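Obj.: predict assembly geometry.
Materials: sequence records (below).
Method: joint structure prediction, all chains together.
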Amino acid sequence: MEKIRVGLIGHRFMGKAHTHAYTDIPIYFDPKVEVIKDTLCSNEADVVEYAKRWGYRNCSLDWREVVANKDIDLVDIVAPSTIHAQVAIEAAKQGKHVLCEKPLALNLDDARAMVNAVEQAGVVNMIGFNYRRVPAIVLAKQLIEEGKIGEIYHFRGYYMQDWLVDPKFPLVWRCVKKDAGYGGHGDMGAHIIDLARYLVGDIDDVCCLQRTFIKQRPLPMFMSGLSATGGSDKMGDVDVDDASQMMLRFSGRETMGYVEVSRFHTGHKNKNMIEINGSRGSIIFDLERMNELEYFDRGANARVQGFTNIQVSEAVHPFIENYWPSGHIIGWADTQVNQMYDLICAIRDGIQVHADFRDGLKCQLVLDAAQRSAETLEWTKVAED
Amino acid sequence: MEKIRVGLIGHRFMGKAHTHAYTDIPIYFDPKVEVIKDTLCSNEADVVEYAKRWGYRNCSLDWREVVANKDIDLVDIVAPSTIHAQVAIEAAKQGKHVLCEKPLALNLDDARAMVNAVEQAGVVNMIGFNYRRVPAIVLAKQLIEEGKIGEIYHFRGYYMQDWLVDPKFPLVWRCVKKDAGYGGHGDMGAHIIDLARYLVGDIDDVCCLQRTFIKQRPLPMFMSGLSATGGSDKMGDVDVDDASQMMLRFSGRETMGYVEVSRFHTGHKNKNMIEINGSRGSIIFDLERMNELEYFDRGANARVQGFTNIQVSEAVHPFIENYWPSGHIIGWADTQVNQMYDLICAIRDGIQVHADFRDGLKCQLVLDAAQRSAETLEWTKVAED
Amino acid sequence: MEKIRVGLIGHRFMGKAHTHAYTDIPIYFDPKVEVIKDTLCSNEADVVEYAKRWGYRNCSLDWREVVANKDIDLVDIVAPSTIHAQVAIEAAKQGKHVLCEKPLALNLDDARAMVNAVEQAGVVNMIGFNYRRVPAIVLAKQLIEEGKIGEIYHFRGYYMQDWLVDPKFPLVWRCVKKDAGYGGHGDMGAHIIDLARYLVGDIDDVCCLQRTFIKQRPLPMFMSGLSATGGSDKMGDVDVDDASQMMLRFSGRETMGYVEVSRFHTGHKNKNMIEINGSRGSIIFDLERMNELEYFDRGANARVQGFTNIQVSEAVHPFIENYWPSGHIIGWADTQVNQMYDLICAIRDGIQVHADFRDGLKCQLVLDAAQRSAETLEWTKVAED
Amino acid sequence: MEKIRVGLIGHRFMGKAHTHAYTDIPIYFDPKVEVIKDTLCSNEADVVEYAKRWGYRNCSLDWREVVANKDIDLVDIVAPSTIHAQVAIEAAKQGKHVLCEKPLALNLDDARAMVNAVEQAGVVNMIGFNYRRVPAIVLAKQLIEEGKIGEIYHFRGYYMQDWLVDPKFPLVWRCVKKDAGYGGHGDMGAHIIDLARYLVGDIDDVCCLQRTFIKQRPLPMFMSGLSATGGSDKMGDVDVDDASQMMLRFSGRETMGYVEVSRFHTGHKNKNMIEINGSRGSIIFDLERMNELEYFDRGANARVQGFTNIQVSEAVHPFIENYWPSGHIIGWADTQVNQMYDLICAIRDGIQVHADFRDGLKCQLVLDAAQRSAETLEWTKVAED
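Observations (raw C-alpha cells):
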C-alpha cells in the first residue's frame, strides 16, 4: 500500500487537532493509502514528549529540516502565522504537498507569493477552512446547488466568542498585530468569509466598522499556543480589533451580506452561525449545534411550512456513513478528519482539492479590503487575486 | 340581530377568562348574533365591583336567581367544582344552555346526573376543555384525521407546574379533596386525558401511581380563587395527589399511552405537552409555546427530514384568519375566545358542540379508574359511560 | 368615575388592534377611569358596521368632525401615514390628547410640525411603539438599567418577514413611496430603531444599504388595510426598499449596532429579534416567542453559566400580575392593551408618557439619515431633533 | 512506561467505537501508561483487514486464544451478547481485567456468574455504560451530589429511536430473543436504567407494558453487526418488544420514575433524554445535544429564573480541559474515550471503577423484573443482587 508521510509544523491547539485527524482517518475511512505521522516539529522543547505521545516516528526542532526531508510527502503548517509564508514556499519548492492553517499569511504580498509557489510547483495545496467539511455545511451547499434555496437575498454570518470580555485576560499573541495580523477579523472572520464565498460566491466590496473595546491588557507571564497564564503588572496595547462588523456586496448578484465577528459576544463560546434566505428556501447553521441544519422549504404545503431541524447524522448525509448509526453525533475535531481524508485522497489521486491557497488568498483580499474600510469608513472594493 | 344572554356563575380566575372571551368575540369574529354579558354571579361581595368593571348589566349573589332568570340563555359555570352539578342540572331543567368548567363534577354520580340532565333537556352543553381550540391542537387533529401521522404508536402527555414545590405554600382548596375532588390528577390530568381522547381515541384501562410529596401545609390566612396569602401557624393535611403518573391502553389499537401531571415539576410553569408518534409522522405540542407545532413527516425526502417547527399563525391555520397577520401570536386567553365563538355559533344554530358533558363524563371515568388504580396499584378498567 | 372618550381614526389592522386594547383594559387593569369607545372614524363605508360590532357609540366618515368634537378626549390615529400630520396637528390644536401610529409622518417637516403642535398644546402625546410594552422587553430594560448587562458592546436588531418573496404578490400601498414613505425600512425599521434607542441610547450616525429585489409587481384589483387581492395584468413599480441593512454608531459609547429589516427573510413571519451583549451579561429577545427572554449572566458560577430562558409570565414580571397564572402566555395584541393602559393612566394623571412624539421624531431622524446613506453609500450623521 | 495490552473481541459497531477510544486516549489524555492495541478478534474473516487498518498488532479468529494469551492485560468484549458470559468468565479466570458491553448477559444466571467470576478473580471489571462519561451527565451528577437539585421528585428517561418503523426493515438479530435477550427494553433500556441508578439510586419495583407493533419482518439476506441488507420473501417472527414503557419506584425515596424506550419513536434518531425535577432545581439532558445541559435553579432571583442552557464545553467541566477550547463540541465517540481513560487509569492504579459488573447485574435485575411485569401486568419487585 502506498504511503503518505506527514511532517507537521506546530504542536499546540491546531497541532493536536491535525494529529487527531491523521490518527482517526483509518478508524472512519479507508483511503487505500497509509498515512504516516512521520515528524512532529516545533521550536519548543516539549515537542519531544508530544511526538512520542501522539505516535510520530520522529521529532524536529527545525522546520527547515522537515521541509528538506526527502521522506516527507505532505508538509502541514499549524505554526504561528508569522512563518506560514516561508515554510509553505520552501515546502512547495521542495515539491511537497502543503496544508496551511488559516489565515494564509500576515499580508497580501506573502499570500500571493504562497499561491504562486504552490501553483508553480504543481503540488496539492489546501488551507484549513475545516468548516467546509462540516456535514451540515456540505448539505447546505448541496441544497443551494440543487436550487432548493433559489436566488439568495440575504447572507448573515457571525462568529461569536467571549473570551476577551474579562479585562484581566492577558495580552496574548492573538491581540498583537505583528503576531496575528488581525484580531477577530482575521481569525474568526476568515472562516465566515470563506463560508460566504463557498456558499454564495465572490465578494465585490465591503463596508467595515471595527472596535477595540479594551485598549490595554496585562502582559502575560507565560504564553503557549492559545493559552496564557497570569497577568503581570505591566500593561501592553491591544492593536488589533476586538470586534468587526461589515456589510458585503457580492459579484453579479443582489445578495445583501453581513458579517460580524467578536470576542465580546458575551455568552457565546464558539458560535459560528450562518443564515441564508433565498427565493425558494432558507438555511440556518450554528457550529455549537453542528450536527443540525435548519431548513425552510417555501415549496412545502402552506399549512405545515416551517423551519425543519435536520439532524445531519444519517447515512444519506455527507461523510456520515463512515461514522456511526443515526443520531450518534460527531464532534468539532471530526471536521478535521473529514478534511484530512479529502486531502489525502487528493494527494493519492494527484488532483487538486478545495479550499486551496487561492481560496485563502481570495478570503484574505476580502479581509484586507475590510480592514482598509474600517480605517476610511468607506465602502471598499475587494482587489483582484 | 338575535341575542344570546349570558349568566356567568363565578368571578375569579376562570370568571375573568370567560368574561374576556365573551368580550372579545366581536373583535375577532362575527357570529351574526349579539352576545350580552347579562349577569355576573358570585356569593362574594366584590362581584358588584367586577360586574361593573367587566361590563355586565347585572350582578347577583345567588346562582338560583340567575338560573331562574327568563332572560338568560346560557348559564356558564366557573364556580367551585362542589356546586357544578346542582347549578348545571337546575340550569338544564330551566332549558338553559350550559357551559361548565372542568372537572365536570366531584364524583361520577354527579357527572352522570349532569349528562342526563342536559341530554334530556336537549340543551347545548359544553365542558371547558379549551385546549381543543388551540390552533396548533386543531392542526394536529387535522393532520391525524388526514392520515399524516398514520397508525399511532405512542401518546405522551404531560401537564407540568411547580407552584407547590415551596413547602410554605398554603393549603389552598386545590389541595383539599372535599373541595377539589382530586389534586393535579383531576385538575391538569383532565386536560391531558381529554386531549388523549380527542387526538387518539377512547381509553380502555390505566395503571396509575400517585404521590403526595408534602403531606401537610400551613392553613391559609386568606384565600380567593386560585390564590391564597400568608400561612398561619396551623397545619392542615394535603389529602389529594401532588403528582400522578399513569400508563394507558386505548380501545381497539395498540397505542401506548403515558400521562404525567404534577405540581412538583420544578421549573415548568404551565407546560401542557403532548407528543404523538405514528407510522407516518409525529407531532409535538407545548402549551408554553402554544403558537407552534412540531411536525415530523416520514414521507419527506430522507436528506431533509426532521421536526418542522410550524408557526401556527397563518391565515391557513385554524381560527387564525380572524386574528392578526402572520407571526403576531395569540395568547392563552384567546383559546377561550375560540371556544366561546364555537359555543355561541352552536347555540345560534341549535346544534351540539364538542367537548360536551358526555366528553366530560368520559374523561372523568378515566380519572376515576386511575384514582382507583393508584390505590390498588393494579391496571384498572375504565367504566362505561 | 372620570371618563376618557376615544375617537379612533382608522379601522383596519391597527384600528382593530387599538379597539381590542381599549376593550380589554378593564378585563386586566383597573385604571380608575372609564374608557369609552366613543367614535370610530374612516372614509370607508363599512366603518358603520365595524363601529357597531366593536361597540363604538358613534361612527363618522370625516376625521375633522371627530377632532372638532368636544366630547372626545383622546384622538387615536391609525389611518394611513399620509394624513398623520394633519390629523395630529389639528387634534392638538383642539386640545385633544393624541396617540399616533408609527411612523410619525412621511417626512421630517411634518414630523417636526407634529412635535411642535403637541408640545405647544401641552397635550399627552404618544407614538405607537407598542414593543416597549412587551413584558420581556421591559424586563430587558430593567436588567440594563440595573447594570446587569454592564457596558453594552453589541446591539443587533432584526425585523424579519417574508410576505413579499412571492413575485405575484400585488403592489400594495406599503410598496409605494408616496403612500408609505419608506418600505420595510420605515415600517419595521422604525420598531427596531426605537428599541435601539429605548434599550441602548441615541444614535450618532449610520451606514445603510438597501435593495429592491423585485422591481415591479402586479397592480392589485382590490386593496384594504394591509391586504390586497388578486393581481391585475398591469404592473407597477416598487419604489421603496424590500430590505434594508445598516450599521449604527451610538452617542457617547462604543456600542456597535446593526439593524436588518426585510420582507424577504424567507421563513420568518414576524421575527423582531434583539440581541444585546455587554460586559456583564447578554439578552436575546424574539417577538415570535415574546413571552420569553434569554439572559446570560456572566456573574453566575462558571460551571452553570449559560443562556437562561426566562418565561416572562410570572407575577413578578412587568404587567403580568394583571393577567393570568404563570405560564399562561399573553399574545401580541396584549402589548397594545399594556400600552393603552399606560396612556390612559398618563391622561388621567396629567403626565407625559413614553414613547412620545419626540421619540417618534428622533426615530425618524435615524431612518432619514439611513435613507440618505443608502443613496450615497456613506456613513451619515443623524440630524438634531 | 508501563503498558496495558488490549484484546478486543468483536469488530463491528462497538468494536469500532472501542478501537477509536483506545486510539484517541493519547491525543487527549496522558494516562502515563501505554495502551497497546494488541489483538483484534472475531470469527469473521474480515477481521484481518480491520486489524490492519485499525492498527492492531495481531488478529485472531478465536476468542479463547486471546483470553489465554499471557500478553493480554485487558479483555474487551464487544461480541454478540450470546457469548458475553463465557468470554468474561474465562478471561477473569485467566486474571485478565475485563470490559464488557451492555447488556451484561442474556439471563440473570449468566450475569450473576459473571459478577462472581470477576469479583473472585479480583480483576478490574467494567460494563460499557458510556453515558456515565458524557460530560453533561457527570455535571448533572455533581449538581445532584452537591444538593443543587434537592430531594428528587421526578425522574423521566426516554430512549427514542425509529429505525423499525419501516415494516420492510429486515428481521435483524436485535429483533430475535435468542440472540438479543430483549428488544429495545434491554438494548436502550439498559442505558436509561443505569442512568436512573447512577443519578437517583436503586430501584424497588416496576410496572411495565410492552408492545411488538410489527409482529413479522422479512428475513435478511445479509447481516453484519447492526446492519442488514435486502429482505427476502420469507418472513420471521419478532419475539422481542418494539417498545417498552415502565413506571418505577425507588428505594428509600418517593421519587416517581418513568422510562420509555422504543424503536418506533418516529422522528427521533438517538434521543436518550433524561429529566429530573427536585425540590431545589431540575435538569434536562438530551443525547442528541450531548454537549448541553439544561439546569433550573429554584434559588435564583425570581425575575430571572428559567432553564439555563449550559454549554458543557468549558475547561471547568468534566473531561473537557483535555479536549478543545470552549464551544468546540465533542462527539458521541468521545464518551468512549473518556470511559477508556478512566478504565485504563483504574487498571494502572489497581482500583475498581464504575460502572462495574455488579452495576450491570443490578441494571439487569431491573430489566428482568420489568420483563416479568410486562407479562403479568403487575407491579413487580426487583430481585436482590
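Conclusions so far: The mean pLDDT of chain C is 96.
To do: check interface contacts against the pulldown list.
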